């Protein structure tokens, strides 16, 4: 599954521990926990997906022509 890397975050680990505890005390079943984790994975991927875009800001840039670059 493509979304699983987000489960190793602090938030993902805490969610997994909480769901495991709820399953242990029979407050929810494992099917519900799995559905909840899948929704978490999709939501966190959507929320953090924009972080794949990069911007480079350059300061004090000098432009050179190819001729200037090739001359010693």
From TrEMBL:
Residues 3-48 form the Transcription initiation factor IIA gamma subunit N-terminal domain. Keywords: Nucleus, Transcription, Transcription regulation. Pfam families: TFIIA_gamma_N (PF02268). Gene3D superfamilies: Transcription factor IIA gamma subunit, alpha-helical domain (1.10.287.190). It comes from the Eukaryota. GO terms for biological process: transcription initiation at RNA polymerase II promoter. One of its GO terms (cellular component) is transcription factor TFIIA complex. Its main location: nucleus. It is found in: Nucleus. Belongs to the TFIIA subunit 2 family. This is Transcription initiation factor IIA gamma chain.
């Amino acid at each position: 599954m493509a979304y699983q890397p987000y489960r190793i975050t602090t938030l993902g680990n805490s969610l997994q521990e909480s769901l495991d505890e709820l399953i242990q005390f029979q407050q929810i079943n494992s099917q519900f926990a799995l559905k909840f984790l899948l929704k978490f994975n999709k939501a966190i991927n959507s929320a953090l997906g924009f972080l794949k875009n990069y911007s480079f800001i350059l300061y004090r840039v000098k432009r050179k022509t190819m001729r200037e670059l090739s001359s010693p």
